[in-house]
UniProtKB/TrEMBL annotation:
<dbReference type="Pfam" id="PF02698">
    <property type="entry name" value="DUF218"/>
</dbReference>
<protein>
    <recommendedName>
        <fullName>DUF218 domain-containing protein</fullName>
    </recommendedName>
</protein>
<dbReference type="GO" id="GO:0000270">
    <property type="term" value="P:peptidoglycan metabolic process"/>
</dbReference>
<dbReference type="InterPro" id="IPR014729">
    <property type="entry name" value="Rossmann-like_a/b/a_fold"/>
</dbReference>
<dbReference type="InterPro" id="IPR003848">
    <property type="entry name" value="DUF218"/>
</dbReference>
<keyword id="KW-1133">Transmembrane helix</keyword>
<feature type="transmembrane region" description="Helical">
    <location>
        <begin position="21"/>
        <end position="41"/>
    </location>
</feature>
<keyword id="KW-0812">Transmembrane</keyword>
<keyword id="KW-0472">Membrane</keyword>
<feature type="transmembrane region" description="Helical">
    <location>
        <begin position="47"/>
        <end position="64"/>
    </location>
</feature>
<feature type="domain" description="DUF218">
    <location>
        <begin position="109"/>
        <end position="275"/>
    </location>
</feature>
<dbReference type="GO" id="GO:0005886">
    <property type="term" value="C:plasma membrane"/>
</dbReference>
<dbReference type="InterPro" id="IPR051599">
    <property type="entry name" value="Cell_Envelope_Assoc"/>
</dbReference>
<dbReference type="GO" id="GO:0043164">
    <property type="term" value="P:Gram-negative-bacterium-type cell wall biogenesis"/>
</dbReference>
Length: 287
């Protein structure tokens, strides 16, 4: 697949720099530093006022308790919103919808998307949460016996996204699944996809695996609830019939009133909007 091979040269460093200095902490930080410089030099006072005002409002908005709620409204499915409300009112946290959507019974494979790696055999917190969602799906589902008897393939997708670790996200997640699901994981055919560095490549390389093994493309797609909007449409563009199982991403009630914990969530949601716009322009989404 020539298109996939070309995109595999994704420059993660450049992507991270652009993110940090467009809608992450780098933007207000640079503005505030520039304001300090202008203040000391006593020049461009009007520009200094504009920069200081913009940086202040930016920090206030991304740290505000309700900002993640406002941004997530478009991204979350009705099922995800309902699940978050249930979790807020209940002492027991449910990671995936219960009951499962009817489309789950027709799935011939499960795809789990990676989201970073901390160190060898230790995927990121987001990846761990998705694996916990997978564990809940496999243990609590009415289709457990059916999936085990069919040796349903589970494709874990995520490449070498940390240049300091000689292990892919998928490999780390495959090791970690033994902590979340135990030895019962051997009842499934777990396949790692180790090349992808973004959601589009997750879908494109997964398609190669399915075509190579002649798997039916009727799948359960498991990823974070706020990522599902983009992920589902990206996989559908590759010809998959997607049954979405979103994993709860964040607490809907936020933290405090103005809190940097809210800023982390807000920046993640902004990343989704930028991703949706970019994927739409590239033609990577099924709209």
């Amino acid at each position: 697949m020539n298109e996939t091979t070309q995109i595999s040269n994704w420059n993660l460093d450049l992507k991270n720099y652009l993110k940090e200095f467009t809608f992450d902490a780098g933007l207000p930080s640079i503005m505030l530093l520039l304001c300090c410089l202008l203040l000391w030099l006593c020049i461009f006072r009007k520009l200094m006022k504009i920069l200081l005002t913009f940086a202040s409002f930016f920090i206030i908005i991304i740290c505000f308790k309700k900002t993640p709620d406002y941004l997530s409204n478009f991204l979350l499915s009705p099922e995800s919103k309902k699940l978050q409300n249930q979790n807020f009112l209940s002492q027991k946290i449910e990671l995936i919808p219960d009951p499962l959507p009817n489309c789950a019974k027709n799935a011939n494979a499960i795809i789990v998307l990676g989201a970073g790696i901390y160190q060898k055999d230790l995927p990121s917190i987001i990846s761990q949460t998705r694996l916990l969602g997978l564990t809940e799906l496999l243990k609590e589902s009415n289709y457990k016996k059916q999936w085990e008897s069919n040796k349903t393939p589970i494709i874990i997708t995520g490449g070498y996204t940390n240049k300091y670790i000689s292990q892919s996200e998928a490999q780390a997640m495959k090791e970690f699944i033994h902590y979340t699901y135990g030895n019962s994981a051997i009842n499934y055919k777990i396949i790692t996809e180790n090349e992808s560095k973004n959601t589009y490549q997750n879908s494109a390389y997964s398609r190669e695996i399915f075509e190579k093994n002649n798997y039916n493309k009727n799948i359960i797609l498991l990823t974070s609830s706020t990522h599902m909007f983009r992920a589902k449409r990206t996989f559908e563009k590759q010809g998959f019939q997607v049954c979405p199982i979103p994993v709860t991403s964040f607490e809907s009630n936020g933290s405090g009133i103005f809190n940097f914990a809210n800023a982390v969530t807000t920046v993640g949601l902004l990343n989704e909007y930028i991703g949706i716009a970019g994927y739409g322009l590239k033609g990577w989404l099924k709209l």
